[in-house]
Structure formats: structure tokens, C-alpha cells
Amino acid sequence: MISKFLLGDHHAGAAQLRVNVSRLLLAALFFAVGNWLSFKLFSYDGRLAAIFGVNAIIIGVCCNHIDRRTVWLVVSCFAGNVLSNLVIGDAALTAIMLACGNALEISLVIVAIRKFCGPQPDISEYRDLGVLVLAGVMIPPLCGLIAGFALAAPGSFFNPAAWWQWCAAHGLLIPILSPATLIMMGWWRDRRLPRVGEIFEWCVVSAAVILVATLIFAQSSFPLLFLAFPVVLLAAFRGGLPGAAMAVATFATFATVATYHNMGPIALVQGDMRARLIVLQLFLGSAFSVGIPVVAVLSNRERIRQELREAKNSAEKAVAAKSEFLANMSHEIRTPMNGVIGFTELLLAGNLASGQRDHVEMIAESGRTMMRLLNDILDMAKIEAGQVTIQREPVNVRHRIASSFRLMEGVAQAKGLQMLLTVEDKIPAWIEADLLRLRQVVLNLVANAVKFTSCGSIVVRVCTEEAEAGPLLCVHVTDTGIGIPSDQISNIFGHFAQADASTARQYGGTGLGLSISNQLAEMMGGTLTCESELGVGSTFSLRIPLLPSEGIVEQVNPLADRDAADSSDNIVGAHILVAEDHDINQALIKAMLTQIGSTFGIASNGLEAIEMVTDAKQNGVPYDLVLMDVQMPFMDGLAATRRLRQDGHDPKTLPVIALTANAYADDIADCQAAGMQGHLAKPVRSRDLAQAVSRWVPRKSSKSAVIEPEIDAGLEARFSARKADTAAAIAMALRQGKFDRDSFAELAKLLHKISGTAEYFGQASLGAKSDEWIHGLQLADAKTGKAILEEALKSLSA
Fold first, then answer.
1. Do 477 and 458 contact (CB within 8 A), yes or no?
2. 483 and which of 111, 534, 609, 677 could share a cystine (Cβ 3.0–4.6 Å)?
3. What values do phi and psi take at 540, rounded to 5?
């Protein structure tokens, strides 16, 4: 049984037993020698020493790790205590009673620590330090009763002087020496090789402590004890718990030696040596109580900092995992949705019975709704992860806002709504802004206005406002829709928030659009606000800094403003390589390319794509364009594109378009950095694919049309007829005085067809002018529009 307690683990061998027994004997010897020295050095007019720190040191040792062996450590100290008491000259009963008092004191303090602080108390914690100090102050008076009984004079039952002596000697040192011992043992246990800077700092602090201690206790003329406290604080700040313990131990050594020799400020105390020793202990207790709380504060602060760092790292890892998960989910969801939506469009392009067409259209609309939901969730996740950045560039603000406005005109007209766009004359043509994010916010506001308005009108007003920080560009979207209760306005900018549940049921939507728009407005340095009245309508106002720009060339999305119907004239016979590993997507892209009249090859991975490009060029039938998926086995699309560029396939002769489910802005940037010219996000629609091919396929046919006189007569006749029809429509509008917005919009559509095909017939200047006329008609009033139409008619009739 004894061996089990001594070993702790019954599987330990005899060698460990010998080590533990040696430790117990050493503890007994330490206690015996300490007890004897305390009596010889600090016992003046009685049996008990005025300074007794042996119990405090043993408590500190035991508290380093409280387990079953602690019991035997206390027993060994009891045996050493009895032995030393007998050597001092106590009677056997007195020796045993005094040893019982010490053993009980040690045991009770350890039990209190174990109960309230656990097996390993942390002195840097206020709670653990407080328990140790409180136990060290309260338990000695209880155990001192034993000493009072043991040292009672003959004929007396109790010795109060002995009891008080015990309380003073023990109660003052346990709160000092026990934490100090615990600190130093912890420092020794966790010791490491110090850095050069730490060694130098410890030397400086130690020198300061010794210097001040010498200054205080080497003289008895001035009470300079107060100088100790700043030095203890310095040691605590620079050295932590070990530094505070070292400083207090140094002052204790100097103060004890000086007081013992009637030197130092404590020698100025009126009274006998016993009174001076009590003052000495009070001084040491005060010094220690100054340093330890500071260290506790610093330790807690450092612990909090460490916890914050760990929390930050965990949060960053979580965000990274979340982003990776969302990117993978985006790919996994978009890939099958690409097949669903793509094949649905192909079905709609064929001959279907009326009922079948309705069903297919419902499938297509459901797919588009799901993609809108996915895009909203991905946008929100990207914003929350801090992975959305604002890229300022020159933006033709009039054109961009008008473009967003026009996108919703068809939906509004189908609902019988009137739409009006007004742009203040003071608005500059070009500003510095994030084109993508500005368009996203404006389009969302206009789309919401159309969705929540069943009758009436929608007015988009673009103007400027003055603010302290500078002028603001303001976009006000006003509708006559359902309105929002005043107490719900603050909630609509939250995640998945709508005015009430009935709104979501009636109008649908995720409730993320306004939240995303609000955060994007803030990221652009602006605000998004709302004014609304229930049953009357709402006005949403976007305000961003108005930063005029030189506006050299606006980087317009090359896939956004071309007509798919015209594109077929440009891409018939184009030779295209499709690098795609998913069999459904392969079938879909093949069907779409077949529909627009292009020939194609299929590669299942990046390595195969590189090989097919090389073979086609060597055989004299090079590919005109590569549609490159990004995530493929063996070699992904980014690596394959970089290899193609390194092998000499430049963007002019072999454009590469990313055809992938990775739809984030940084994914697009990665594609561009790898050498790709464009990006199509899955699910791909036939119109988008046709536009991309038309934009990027090298226009060999148009060049030959300029150089060679042989132009297909049928194509030339179609183009001439298109010009004549457009000129006739413009002439009729001029004669009838139709200068309203609807007329301008219809004529702009006709001109758009001219601009998309004029270059093929050697009339590039006419195509460029058509683009200018289209943009001019978008915001023109009656007078300006008439002048534009007259100019267009003159050019088309030439």
C-alpha cells in the first residue's frame, strides 16, 4: 500500500520507489533543519520563532502538483518536525503537538487549494492567488490553538502569547513564501534556454533590485522602504511571476540580514526584535502583494491576447475552409445546373407542343431562380470573408445606369408599369467607380422596384449632392409599390430579411439582395438608405463619392452587349476546342456549338487540350478558340493555358475562354492572369456562348471580305436589306415626329444589328458610328434624338 502511494502508478519499478523514498527523506531533513534554524535565529523570548517560513515553502512545493504522494510528503515533514523539536529540547508530547500543528496547517491549506483551485493552481489567476492568500491567513490562527495548548505554563490551560506568536510567524509568511515557491518551481519546470536579450534584461533588472535593496537596508537613517515597490513593479513587468518572486526574495534576504544586525529602516521601529520582525514580514507581504497582482493582470492580458490570436487563427481557418467549401459547392452545383439549364434552352429552341413548352419553361425558370439564389449566397459569403475588393476604374456612368435600367424595361412593360430615367446635366460622363459593383447595386434596386410594384410607375433619378467630404453621386429609385412599414425599414438590410413573412410568400426572393447591396455601398465608400410609406411606395437612395475621371477608355464587358442573332453570321464554321471533363457538359457544349454552326473538338483534360492544339496547328487546321474548363484531372485549365502561352500560342491567334463553375471575381482574375481572354460562368446559356465566340474568334472572314472582292452575295444582300430597313424606319420616325423613349429604343435595336455586322462588309466606320448613335439615343431628349436620327439616316443612305 505504501509503495502504491509512493509510486502513484503501480506499474512503476523499484527504481522509481527509491527515488520517491529519497525525496521523502530529503523533505524530512529539510523540515528538520529549517525548523531548527528558525528557532536558533528568530526565537527571542519564547519557544516559537518570530519568523517561520518552513510551512510556507512546503505548501508551495506540495501545491506544484497535488496528488496521493502529497500525503506522504506531509507525513515525512511531520517526522522531521518531531525529530527537530526533540533536538531543540521539547518534551515528547510538546514536540508531537507542535509537529501536529504544523502538519495540520500544511494539510488544511493544501486541501483548500485542491478543492477550490484543482491539483495545479495558477498564481497568475486572481482566484487561485486569492484562495492561497486567504487560506494562508485564516488557517494559521486555527492551528495555532494547538501551540497555545502545547506551550501552556504549568497550572495554565492555554498560552495566548504562543498562539499570537504562531499567527504572526505563520500567517504573514504563507501568503508570501508559498506563492513565491510555487512560482519558482513552475519557472524551473518550464525552463528553457533564454535568448541573449532576455539574459541582458534579467541582468539589468537584478542589478536594479540589488542596488535599491543595498540603498534601502545599508543605512538606518532614512525610512526608504517605499523605494522597493517601484523596483518590484519593474521586475514584475519585465520578468513576470519569476521576476516578482526574485525581487521579493532579494529584498527579503537584505531586509532579514539587516534587521537581524539592527540595521536598515526597520531598525527604526520602536519596540523589541519581535516587533521589528513583524514589521519586516508586513513589508515583504506588501512588496509581494504589489508585484503579484500586476503579474496576474499582465498574464491575463497575455492569455487573452493568446486566446484572441488563437481565435483569430481559428476564424481565418474557418473562413478559408468556408470559402473553399463554397467554391467547391459552387462548382458542384453549377456543373449539373449547367446541363439542366443548357439542355432546357435547347429544348425550347426546338418544336414543342404547347403543354410541353410550358413545362420546359417552368424548368428553365426554376433553374434560373436557383442560380440567382446560389449567386446571392456566394456573394454574401465572399463579402463576409473579406474577399470582395473594390476596383476603381473609369466608368461611363450615364451609359451603365441606362443599361441597368433597360434590362428591366421588358419586365416592367409586361406588368404595365411606366419607367422613367432622368440624369442631371451636372453628372460627368466618366467617373471613377467599381463598374461591376455599381451596376450590381443599381440593377438590384431597379429589379426590386419592378418586383414589388404591381401598378403605377418606377422613376430612376441620377443627381449629385454636396457633402462635407465632397460631392456625391446619388441614384434614387422610386416606385409606387407595396411600401414598407416604418418599423421594418431598419430590418430590410439584414441577411435573409424582408418586411414580413407574407412578402416572401407572395413575391419570393432570398432576402439577401438588399443586404449585399448595402454592404457593397459601404465598401464603395457610400450609403444605401430607404424612405417608404406602406401602401404608397418606396425610395431607395444609393450615395457614393463622385470622383470625376478622364475616362479614356471604359473596359466594357465584351460579352455583354452583342446580339446573339447577329453572332451566328460571324461564327459559322469557327473551329473550336472544348476542354471539359464532365460528359454532360461536353454533350451540352457540343449541342450549342452545333446549333450556331461551329465545328469543334473535345479534350477531357488540360494535357489532352495542349496535344490537340499542337496537332491541329501542325496539320494546318488550327483551332480558332479554346473553351477551357478550370477544374480538370491531370492538368487544370489554368496550367494548360499557361503552357499554351509558353509554347507560342498568342491570344490573337488562339483566344482562350474560361468555361467553368468558378464564378468569383478572384477566380476571373486568376483566369486572366493565366492568359485567358474571357470568362463564362456555368450554367452557360446559348446566347452567352454565341456572344463569346463571336467576340473572340479571329475574324478571318471579315479580313478576306476587305481584301478579296469575293463576298457571299446572299450575306451582302441581307446586310444591304438590313441597312435599308433601318434607314426606312428612321425616315418614318422623322416624318411622324416620333421622338419618345420607346421609339428611340426600337431604332437603337435596329442600329445595334448594323454595328454588329458592318465590319464584315468593309464598313467598320459605319459600325463604330452605329455604336455612338445607340449610346446617344439612350439618354437623348427629343431635340438631341432628332439630330442623331438625321445623321444616321444620312450615313445609311449614302
1. yes
2. 534
3. -100, 135
Structure confidence by residue, pLDDT tens digits, 766-781: 777 776 777 677 666 6
Q: How far apart are CA 131 and CA 116, in angstroms?
A: 7
Q: Does the pLDDT value for residue 669 go beyond 80?
A: no
Burial of 523 (0-12, 13-18, 19+ CB in 10 A): middle
- Would you state the cell numbers that stand for residue 174, as one nine-digit string? 504563507
Threshold 0.70, pTM exceeds: no
Query: Residue 548 gets which letter from DSSP?
Result: B
CB 445 within 8 A of CB 541: no
Taking the mean position of all CA atoms in its chain, how far away is CA 189?
37
Give dist(CA 727, CA 562) in Å, integer. Answer: 21
Sign of CA dihedral 262, 267, 269, 273: negative
3-class DSSP state of 464: strand
- CA separation (Å) from 647 to 54, 611, 642, 643, 672? 83, 11, 9, 6, 17
Pick the closest to residue 590 from 674, 599, 411 (CA basis).
599
Cβ within 8 Å of residue 39, ≥6 positions away: 47, 49, 88
Rounded to 10°, the helix 665-674/637-646 angle is 30
Q: Residue 71: which H helix or E strand, with range?
A: helix 69-88
Instruction: Tell me 487's DSSP state.
Output: G
pLDDT in tens, 357-370: 777 777 777 777 67
Our CA angle for 700, 702, 704, nearest 5°, is 70
What is the identity of the amino acid at 361? E
Distance CA 470, CA 468 (A): 6
Per the CB < 8 A criterion, the answer to whether 631 and 643 are in contact is no
